[in-house]
Design brief:
The radius of gyration is 27 Å and the shape is globular. The protein folds into three domains: 54-70 and 351-399 and 433-584, ANL, N-terminal domain (Rossmann fold), CATH 3.40.50; 79-315, ANL, N-terminal domain (Rossmann fold, 3-Layer(aba) Sandwich), CATH 3.40.50; 593-723, GMP Synthetase, Chain A, domain 3 (2-Layer Sandwich), CATH 3.30.300. The chain has a nine-stranded mixed β-sheet. Strands 9-8-7-5-6-10-11-21 form an eight-stranded mixed β-sheet, sandwiched between helices. The protein is built from 24 helices and 29 strands. Helix 17 (461-470) links the parallel strand 15 (451-454) and strand 16 (474-479).
Length: 724
């Protein structure tokens, strides 16, 4: 728990104040309880949270398959009724329904000025204006004109185009422009290095790259490695002119606005107006080639069709309630399938999307000029898509602020947290406390957030609960992969549990299959366990130019396409899934990095201080920890150098924090020499006094570690390491 609500104040007078507050709260609860009981009807909330969300539809001795019980919502039924089967048709249908409503918003940058800091440094700060909105009609027209402009500069239907850009309205417009012309979009993260960018461009054989003013200079180097690139289209900066000089000879550098203008003037623009059929994509056509990291670290391009994307849109529509007046703040990378589909759900659902960046989001963000409001305060969103790493930062920021406040303020906040948590478990909201205590926390994000949707990695139960309490909003976690178009499971917004990822999404089936090597079986008690396999229209066509890997990971059975996730799930009685492990020792950390635990162990075992080692990674955390059986003589010598008691018993000596820190420093130095990445190096260690042997059940007869058994034996030590 980040906030320890059970902590006892040091000062007697703070304790006295808290006792008074508790007494007043008790009297208030007694008086108002009947009102809250009748108005809030907590029994209904508890029933909604506990209801069965999925059912087993088939079972064998080594697998079970479950299906969701979620009925299709109005938006889902409308997509079916209107015959929408492609992303091009989706935008057309959205425009017909929402017409002049605001769709995509961009914050006006009025000026960039130097702001001197107290330490003498000068920071560049933005003076920001209001959001400028494109209506649905504007968005569809501009997307079609951009698509026609792509044809005018030489792009052809079903020939790939790369989008390498930061998240902004023009990213979405460019993608939909490609969809109007049946041009597959290759997405590449804006944060990747030159080698990874060149790999994606060369493998997909693109001749046209769409980028931004800020990223364009990177191509002065990259073009030397990408011989097939002929045209670069850049999205303009609001203030600065773009330098297009110094690029490889023969490369056309064209602005986004010029491409739109070319499309507006071309004959193709009239050909692709609503009602024309010339280049519209089909449901089976490739919409996106999205790159993702595999176990080998070599990026794999996942082929996502229009059918895949519409299947996920329908599933998201059934899982996420949309209300009149909702506004989404978009800032996650659109090159990530989760953000791309979440934003397109908003487009078809009539929810305006206002774009932001981490540098301008809050009033206190690093690029916001003093006296200028941040994006969240200006936009006042009701919905935010996020990832666990950002949720953790929010949670830790709240904790840090509480710890820096005065003793009385901290004590009152912690008591309020505990009070609200108690009533939430019973099915009640706490509107008075929210107004008095937690309103200021929610005000940092504009004061209207009702829903945060977390994806991309498992969300820590502590973070989930703390954000839910302090921001006074629902927090919905989901599970999906690029290979399943981000569709897998989604939490019910009424579900009050934490640490789970919900039931299968609408239209998807989820199977658990025995993984004997890890002792995960569907016959395990109290809950079935096994490898998660997802089936349905959301499952991708396969990997781009990688038929062997496609054959290994994808299955066609029972009239469906299935993907073997490699993740281990546990099925609970209400049909919800909890992610409990990952196959093949590959762990995806909270920030998205993959760590091969076996590889790290193999390198660290060569460190002189290590006799044996087991590295553990929690997907809801940003680092790994290690259980180390040390080399006894070397550890004794290290303890002597640290002037620790020479005659101490091993349990007492091994538990010395100074000794653990010294061993950790040796491991870090050894890891650096071995070439391990920083995120692969354990951030904490536990020195184990017993030598692992086959008799103990912690290693095999061949002395290979039994990871699950070691983790079970030392689970309390693992908790301690992460808590520290």
């Amino acid at each position: 728990m980040f906030i320890d609500e059970n902590e006892t104040p040091d000062s007697w007078w703070v304790s006295a104040v808290l006792r008074t507050i508790r007494t007043v709260a008790f009297v208030f609860d007694v008086i108002t309880f009947p009102i809250h009981l009748l108005v809030q009807r907590p029994w209904r909330k508890r029933a909604l949270s506990r209801r069965i969300k999925a059912r087993i539809i088939s079972s064998t001795e080594n697998s079970i398959t479950i299906s969701p019980l979620t009925p299709p919502c109005d938006l889902h039924l409308r997509l079916v009724r209107d015959g929408v089967t492609t992303m091009e048709g989706m935008l057309r249908a959205a425009t017909q329904r929402w017409g002049q409503r605001p769709c995509l918003g961009t914050r006006a940058v009025l000026s960039e000025e130097d702001e001197p800091q107290p330490n003498g440094r000068v920071f560049k700060k933005f003076k920001m204006g209001e959001y400028i909105w494109r209506t649905y009609a504007d968005v569809e027209r501009e997307a079609r004109e951009f698509g026609a402009g792509l044809r005018a500069v030489g792009c052809e239907p079903r020939r790939n185009v790369v989008i390498f850009a930061e998240t902004r309205a023009e990213w979405m417009l460019a993608a939909h422009g490609c969809f109007t012309q049946s041009i597959p979009v290759v997405t590449i993260y804006a944060t990747l290095g030159d080698e990874a960018i060149a790999h994606g461009i060369n493998e997909t054989e693109v001749s046209t790259v769409i980028t931004t003013h800020d990223l364009l200079p990177k191509f002065k180097k990259i073009l030397a490695k990408t011989p097939k690139v002929e045209t670069i289209i850049y999205m303009e900066d609001q203030l600065k002119p773009t330098d297009t000089q110094g690029f490889k000879e023969g490369i056309k550098i064209v602005s986004y606005k010029n491409v739109v203008e070319l499309g507006r003037e071309s004959k193709i623009a009239s050909m692709c107006s609503p009602g024309a059929e010339s280049v519209r994509p089909g449901a089976a056509d490739t919409a996106i080639i999205m790159y993702t990291s595999g176990s080998t670290g070599v990026p794999k391009g996942v082929l996502l069709s229009h059918r895949n994307m519409l299947a996920t849109l329908k599933a998201f529509a059934d899982a996420i309630p949309i209300y009149e007046g909702d506004v989404l703040m978009g800032f996650l990378p659109l090159a990530h399938v989760f953000e791309l589909l979440a934003e397109n759900l908003c487009i078809i659902g009539g929810v305006p999307i206002g774009y932001s960046t981490p540098l301008t989001m809050l009033d206190s963000s690093s690029k916001i000029m003093k006296g200028t409001k941040g994006d969240a305060t200006t936009l006042r969103p009701t919905c935010i898509t996020t990832v666990p790493l950002i949720m953790d930062r929010i949670s830790k920021g709240i904790t840090d602020k509480v710890s820096r406040s005065g003793e009385l303020a901290a004590a009152v906040f912690k008591w309020s947290y505990s009070y609200k948590q108690t009533w939430m478990r019973r099915g009640y909201d706490t509107p008075v406390l929210d107004y008095l205590i937690f309103r200021k926390v929610g005000g940092l994000l504009g004061g209207r957030v009702r829903l945060m949707i977390s994806g991309g990695a498992p969300l820590s139960p502590d973070t989930h609960l703390q954000v839910k309490i302090c921001l006074c909003c629902s927090v919905v976690a989901g599970y999906g992969l690029t290979e399943t178009t981000s569709c897998g499971t989604v939490m019910d917004p009424h579900d009050r549990s934490t640490g789970r990822v919900g039931a299968p999404a609408a239209g998807a089936l989820l199977a658990l299959r025995d993984w004997d090597e890890g002792n995960y079986r569907v016959t395990n008690k109290p809950h079935p366990q096994g490898e998660i396999i997802i089936g349905g229209d959301c499952v991708a066509e396969g990997y781009y130019k990688n038929p062997q890997k496609t054959k290994e990971e994808f299955i066609d059975a029972e009239g469906r396409r299935w993907f073997k996730s490699g993740d281990i799930g546990e099925l609970h009685d209400d049909g919800c899934i909890k992610i409990i492990d990952r196959k093949k020792d590959l762990v995806k950390l909270q920030a998205g990095e993959y760590v091969s635990l076996g590889k790290v162990e193999a390198e660290l075992k060569t460190c002189p201080i290590v006799e044996n080692i087991c590295v553990y990674g929690d997907s809801s955390k940003s680092h790994t920890v290690a259980l180390v059986v040390p080399n006894a003589p070397r550890l004794a010598a290290l303890a002597q150098r640290l002037q620790l008691p020479a005659g101490a018993d091993p349990p007492a000596l091994y538990a010395q924090p100074a000794l653990e820190r010294a061993v950790l420093a040796e491991l870090a130095e050894h890891a650096r020499k071995c070439g391990l990445e920083k995120f692969e190096v354990p951030a904490a260690v536990k020195l184990c006094t017993e030598v692992w042997s086959p008799d103990m059940g912690l290693v095999t007869a061949a002395f290979k570690i039994k990871r699950k058994d070691i983790q079970e034996r030392y689970k309390e030590d693992i908790k301690r390491m992460y808590a520290s």
